[in-house]
Amino acid sequence: MLIRNATLAEGDTRDVRVSGERIAAVGDGLDADDERVLDATGKRLLPGMIDVHVHFRQPGFGHKETWETGTKSAAAGGVTTVVDQPNTEPPTVDGAAVDEKLGYAEQAHIDFGINGGVTADWEPATLFDRPLFALGEVFLADSTGEMGIDTSLYAEALEQAREHDVTVTVHAEDETLFNESARERDDADAWSAYRRPQAEQEAVRRACELATERDIQIHVAHTSTPEGIDIAAEHGMTCEVTPHHLFLSREYLSELGTHGVMNPPLRRDTLRSRVYERVADGTVDMIATDHAPHTAEEKDVGVWDAPSGVPGVETVLPLLLVEAERGRLSYERVRDLTAATPADVFDLPDRGRVREGNYADLVLVDPDAVTEIRADALHTNCPWTPFEGWDGLFPEWTMVRGEQVFERDADEPFGDPRGQNVRTTEE
After folding, report:
1. What pLDDT does residue 109 have?
2. Domains of the chain, earliest start first
3. What is the 3-state secondary structure (H, E, C) of the chain?
4. Can 290 be counted among the known catalytic residues?
5. Is 333 marked as binding a ligand?
6. What per-residue confidence (pLDDT) applies to 426?
7. What's the predicted TM-score (pTM) here?
8. How far apart are the two ends of the chain, measured CA to CA in Å?
9. Which of 35, 164, 227, 423 lies in the 20 to 30 Å Cα band around 100?
10. Dist CA 158 CA 154 (whole Å)
11. So what's the pLDDT on residue 427?
């Protein structure tokens, strides 16, 4: 394929040639060969998003999401690589569990990585014998799957990660700092009052200090407070922010109810706005969804019984592209947050940018095609969204390694599963 006159994230208009799985050339006035020519005048051509934090629920909870539905949803939203977390059933804490999950991942429509987890029963010898993306999400407090660990086991995980030269992704909350008095309430906002900001801030600080002492790099998942972001940056560690912590606040809980329960919880809007500032100014390294689907029936219970998490893999890039189109973030910043920096941090040198030699993981977007986000138009197995009615800028098509895996207006928008483990591909 030769894509003509596409506007890249930097604002330059270029021709882009795709040959096989790679970008063969980026330039001006490229000569057409015996190939399909696509006129992209007025449209944006961006690298596909690398979402380093999803929960696709298989094995164990396929009624919430499967590898097939989750990766279709991702492709429809412009995500070309996802990284699945270990809190499935069984948890991905040994080689056999990795192998089982890889079997489910054969249904993936986009590329993927698999993280190994840490529990008291983990088996580092067999776990690190598999092609892991990273170690983590290492839970320093219980969340879905009840995989919270203590400081000594976290320290052991850091030592093992250093020995095997992998990054550790950390869910940082300190359960000893939760506000127990909030448990006397039954409104949706009680969850935010319970898992208060200090619990994140102190857990991030301790996690970073222990990693620094052992000279190991960690990545802090779903930071929800400006202080947590700053602490990670001060220690030279990377962090991510989710779309729900970027756009939503406790003020939305009156509308969302228990559908707005997640870990860490939504914060007050004053904190959310300061998180946004750090996303815009470069302090935050990347956006990741923490796509954590549960059925509406599972969420429609009391606040202390509702499972934590919201879906987001299909709506994250469309939300961010609207921010870029309206001038609140630059297209370059969106590219860095969603593709270039995740590729750099997690050692994916052939992904994350539209440049010659990289894999052709591409997304084509018409900036004039802003639409409302509607749950009934999404492709996840979890047909609800906290962003119902928000504006989104969805891709016309998504390409993974040179092949279109999603085309919005096609009679059959998805092709056959073709996802590969990026750790195997990159080797």
Report:
1. 98
2. 46-345 (3.20.20.140)
3. CEEEEEECCCCCEEEEEEECCEEEEEECCCCCCCCCEEECCCCEEEECEEEEEECCCCCCCCCCCCHHHHHHHHHHCCEEEEEECCCCCCCCCCHHHHHHHHHHHHHCCCEEEECECCCCCCCHHHHCCCCCCCEEEEECCCCCCCCCCCHHHHHHHHHHHHHHCCCEEEECCCHHHCCHHHHHCCCCCHHHHHCCHHHHHHHHHHHHHHHHHCCCCEEECCCCCHHHHHHHHHCCCEEEECHHHHHCCHHHHHHHHHHHCCCCCCCCHHHHHHHHHHHHHCCCCEECCCECCCCHHHHCCCCCCCCCCCCCCCCHHHHHHHHHHCCCCCHHHHHHHHHHHHHHHCCCCCCCCCCCCCECCEEEECCCCCEECCHHHCCCCCCCCCCCCCEECCCCEEEECCEEEEECCCCCCECCCCCCEHHHHHC
4. yes
5. no
6. 55
7. 0.97
8. 26
9. 164
10. 6
11. 47
Q: What is the pLDDT of residue 142?
A: 55
Judge whether 115 is annotated as a binding position: no
The torsion angles phi and psi of 326, rounded to 5 degrees, stand at -95, 5
- 17 labeled part of a ligand binding site: no
pLDDT at 60: 95
Which residues, other chains included, contact 66 with Cβ-Cβ below 8 Å and sequence gap of 6+? 56, 57, 58, 104, 107, 381
Sequence letter at residue 129: D
**Binding residue per annotation — 358?**
no
CB 172 within 8 A of CB 204: yes
pLDDT given for residue 336 in this prediction = 98
One of 174, 285, 290, 361 is an active-site residue; which one? 290
Tell me what pLDDT residue 320 has: 98
Task: Look at residue 241 in the predicted model and tell me its pLDDT.
Answer: 98
87 known member of a binding site: yes
Residue 290 is labelled as binding a ligand: yes
Is 379 a known ligand-binding residue?
no
Q: What is the pLDDT of residues 260-279, one digit of tens each?
A: 999 999 999 999 999 999 99
Cis before 59? omega within 30: yes
How far apart are the C-alpha atoms of 233 and 235, rounded to whole Å? 5
Query: Is 219 part of any known ligand binding site?
Result: no
Q: Which residues of 185-199 are buried (b: 16+ CB within 10 A; e: fewer)?
A: eeebbbbbbbbbbeb
Residues of the chain below pLDDT 50: 427
